[in-house]
C-alpha cells in the first residue's frame, strides 16, 4: 500500500486555494500564490513567510475582479 504523508506543514499564509508554487534557484526559498497574494517562504522556516504582493482590499465587497 502506498501512502502519502507530509514532511513539513507550512500554514496560515493563504486564505484562498494556492494556484502556483515555484522553487527558486537557491533551492532554499520558494514562492506560493493564491488569487490575491504572493508569499516568499524559506524551506527551514515553516511558520513565517514574506508577503510579496497583497491585493486583497480592506472591504471584500469592493473586489470586482481578480
UniProtKB/TrEMBL annotation:
A GO molecular-function annotation: protein phosphatase regulator activity
Superkingdom, natural source: Eukaryota
Keywords: Repeat, WD repeat
Annotated GO CC locations: protein phosphatase type 2A complex
Name under which the protein is recorded: Serine/threonine-protein phosphatase 2A 55 kDa regulatory subunit B delta isoform
Taxonomic path: Eukaryota, Metazoa, Ecdysozoa, Arthropoda, Hexapoda
